[in-house]
Amino acid sequence: MSSAQPAIELIGISKAFGPVQANRDISIRVAPGTIHGIIGENGAGKSTLMSILYGFYRADRGEIFINGRKTDISDSQAAIAAGIGMVFQHFKLVENFTVLENVILGAEDGALLRPSLAKARKELAALSSEYGLDVDPDAVIERIGVGFQQRVEILKALYRRADILILDEPTGVLTPAEADQLFRILHRLKEEGKTIILITHKLREIMEATDTVSVMRRGEMVATRKTAETGPEELAELMVGRKVLLRVDKTPARPGAEVLAIHDLKVTDPAGVLRLKGIDLTLRAGEILGLAGVAGNGQSELLEVLGGMLPALGTVTGSIRMQGRDLALTGAAGDGKARRAAQIGHVPEDRQRAGLVMDFFAWENIAFGYHADTAYQRSGLFMDNGALRREAADKMDRYDVRPPDPWLKAKNFSGGNQQKIVLAREIERKPALLLVGQPTRGVDIGAIEFIHKEIVALRDAGAAILLVSVELDEILSLSDRIAVMFDGRIMGERLPDETDEKELGLLMAGMDARASGEAA
Amino acid sequence: MEKMPAWADVILIPLISLVLAAFISALVILFIGQSPAEALKLMVTGALGSTYGWGYTLYYATNFIFTGLAVTVAFHARLFNIGGEGQAMLGGLGVAIACLYVPWPHWSIALVAASISGAVFGAAWAAIPAWLQAKRGSHIVITTIMFNFIASAVLNYVLVNVMRPKGSMDPATERFSQTIHLPTLHEILLPFGIPFSKAPPANISFIVAILACLAVWALIWRTRLGYEIRAYGHTETGAVYAGISPVKITVITMLISGGLAGLMGINNVMGEAERLVLNATEGAGFIGIAVALMGRGHPAGVFLAAILFGFLYQGGTELALWTSIPRELIVVIQALVILFTGALDNMVRTPLQQIFMALRRKES
Fold it and tell me: What is the ipTM of this complex?
């Protein structure tokens, strides 16, 4: 440990929400002028700890020292006064304000805006050149990309004279290229003497960007390491508390007959916006096709039309052939029930709003979507709830859902266990095609391993799998073939062994490196 | 993680809310110079102290059970049916038509026919707002409220211009035939040797209301339709994912809801008045909303809440009769009960949750 005064020192921080101990006796020292990573699974208590530091919550016990001085952070104003700035995962920007207006929001001096704006414009120019944060001060937020919006958040903090910046899962919404730019900015900030705390659940980012890393598990700080002296394997083990397999163990695919053929599929949403602009895709039995892309480029719409979830309004043209038969694109013949009858299973992107009814018991959820099956009916009128409960108990046992209690509501399970319930329901029916959207979003590492294994097992049993994920690591390690979507189109297909994150990242941003290379 | 045991949610919260409402009511009564203790005593003896009182309490409760169930069923699909009043009015019309224009040989057959007719009329009245909601996105709260006014106007027209007997000055139909007179509780209990007051209008519809509670319970928690209604109510995206048609569920749920409200006609029109009069519903459709809120989506809760409001209605009438407390004060008391049990639910719930969490922490 260096003898220099730490920029932040937390001693014995504890915080409980009712019976849940979110933070337990946490102590941490962050050296000034460094990037300090905090890593941990969902629910490990990272966000709670940072919320305490930023004055959203008050710790039940413990002390906070900023630059060696004991500081009482009672609200976010006090945090700002202490020189702490926070960049949230979900930006807190006013969409129809300009960059400049957003920057002074809450920091205006006086009732008239004009002097504040003029002052801020000058200062923003200085900040931009000092840290390489190029942003047009007069651009309206809703018209600039997410990468730039994030810079505005950083500028907001700097404008308030923050010396300590906390970034909460900053790369969740960024393309790989945008993430790289962000890390360059963070390094520049560090060189200028700022202290940065980076909260993430991505091991790669920790290894890439930080000097020191602290690992949290179940509300406790389990270890702090110099990043150079540790590796992803050790960090993953510390996060989960046991050895984890980071790579997916799978044999090469043996593709069989064609299962799904999509031709010139176009989807217009109810607002009249063309979301899919002519998709062509084929998928064979026994292979996993990974669909990469930044969220909002048409992957969701593709999953929805395949899963029969498209809103009643809007139009769909083109064709979808499933096992040699054309599927209806709209109407009752193209709804979720019809898709299930055509042997299409669907693990939806949003399990909390679509895949599960959060207020239903686990046993009610185990048949969700298949609840009209004759196996679940006791007579024409009544459902056989006993059969549902038996099936739920059985499937929860086999998919290691914890706790294995069919009488627990879906909302009371962790993200990983919720996803296991959805997977148990969809996989156990041996679909010919399984649609999988964001299978590990909000899922802890331990469960990720399990979920990946089940998906590969289904592939090996001969199912075709369409995987949509914003996590490139997941796409690369799980897919047998990768298609990249941008702006409602397939930008290209690659084999995972013959591509890398950089190439995929360019495709995701709408640039075809190969094509432009050939042209040059 | 459930924050409270179930019994606290189901029993303790409504009870505390009631006590609070009673306390404020007592203050109001005190304020106008009357004795709250006397008033309470009068209400209890007036509504529950005799079979006469019980007869009225149960008669009102029967109305509220039907309209409360109507709101409850719709609520499971996240549809707020404010139109119970209008649907009950139209249900009454359906009952009257069935009773007036067919010479039924026996009351039991007439009751079945009138039930069906009333339910169909009520359902039909709910169908239009349901269709507008499902297909056009017109908010069901707004449309059902408007349909209450339309129902009132329709009834006015029909009673004045179509169904009024020639020469009558009263906007009401003629009396139903005595052969289809529904047995009152007095007549039902007499063979068992249980004496029950002859006067009050409580009748066999009360039994039908209890059966309706059981049917709604089975519908919501035991049938596939109920499963789909609840799923749709919790998450529309989820329903679409599961292949449940939002249009279908919206329309069917509202038909059932309107049908239940329409069923009320067998109690107030066929059982009590034995003819259709203007404003036969007397606001029971609106009380149904409060009953459903207090009943917490469960038919058993609706049943108990309906009895409570029946008590308030009958007790209030007694109060107005025997004291100088104005009739309007009863409305104040009812409003306080609705306010505390419905609207201010969280005022009681949040502190109670904190108490329970503190207790649990102490245990562990």
Answer: 0.87
Nearest-neighbour CA in chain A from B247: distance (Å): 10
Interface test with B, best of A383, A409, A426 (most B CBs within 10 A): A383
Domains in chain B, number = 1
Q: Looking at chain A, which residue has its C-alpha nearest residue B232?
A: A357
Radius of gyration of chain B (CA): 21
**What letter does residue A44 receive in the DSSP assignment?**
S
| Minimum Cα–Cα distance from B242: chain A residue | A369
> Looking at chain B, which runs of residues are DSSP E strands?
none
Nearest to A250 by CA among A466, A449, A492: A449
Q: Is the CB of residue A348 less than 8 Å away from at least one CB of chain B?
A: yes
CA distance B246 to chain A (A): 10
- Distance CA(B259)–CA(B70), nearest Å, equals 8
CATH of the domain at B96: 1.10.3470
- Residue B1 lies inside a defined structural domain of this protein: no
CB-based contacts of B56, cutoff 8 Å, min separation 6: B47, B200, B201, B202, B310, B313, B314, B317
Q: What are B264's two structure tokens? A: 């009320």
* Domain total in chain A: 2
- The shortest CB-CB distance from B227 to any of A307, A358, A371 is to A371
8 Å CB contact of B361 and A19: yes
- Structural domain range at position B126: 61-310
Q: Best interface-test mutation with B: which of A349, A363, A365, A368 has the largest number of B CBs within 10 A?
A: A368
A331 with A448, same domain: the answer is yes
Q: Are residues A231 and A291 in the same domain?
A: no
The answer on A177 and A79 residing in a single domain is: yes
Helix then strand then coil, % of chain B, to nearest 5: 75, 0, 20
Separation in Å, CA of A501 to nearest CA in chain B: 32
Q: Taking CB atoms and an 8 Å limit, are B361 and A18 in contact across chains?
A: yes
| Edge-first strand listing for the sheet containing A481-486 | A344-347, A433-437, A464-468, A288-292, A481-486, A489-494
Chain A nearest CA to B152, separation (Å) = 35
User: Which one of B222, B230, B241 has the shortest CB-CB distance to A354?
Assistant: B241
Contacts with B4 from chain A: Cβ below 8 Å: none
Locate A208 and state its tokens: 């890439």
Where are the alpha helices (H) located in A399-443, listed in sequence order? Answer: 415-427
Contact A181, A131 (CB under 8 A): no
Query: Along the 520 residues of chain A, how does pLDDT read in single tens digits?
Result: 445 789 999 999 999 877 678 899 999 999 999 999 999 887 788 888 998 999 988 899 999 999 999 999 988 889 999 999 999 878 889 989 999 999 988 887 778 888 888 888 999 899 888 888 888 899 999 888 888 898 999 999 999 989 999 998 888 777 778 888 899 999 999 998 999 999 988 888 899 899 999 999 888 999 999 999 998 888 888 888 877 766 788 899 999 999 999 999 999 987 788 999 999 999 999 999 999 988 888 999 999 999 999 866 678 999 999 999 999 998 888 899 999 999 999 999 999 899 999 999 999 999 999 999 999 999 888 999 999 999 999 999 999 998 899 999 998 888 889 999 999 999 999 999 999 999 988 787 778 889 999 999 999 999 999 999 988 888 999 999 999 999 999 999 999 999 988 889 889 888 875 655 443 3
Compute how many other C-beta atoms are within 10 angstroms of the C-beta atom of residue A435.
Answer: 26
Is A380 within 8 Å of chain B by CB? no
A contacts of B228 (beta carbons < 8 Å): 371
Residues 196-235 of B with CB under 8 A from A: 218, 222-224, 227-228, 230-231, 234-235
Note down the domain range covering A183: 8-240
Q: Which residues of A touch B234 (CB under 8 A)?
A: 357-360
By CB atoms closer than 10 A (0-12, 13-18, 19+), residue A303 is: buried
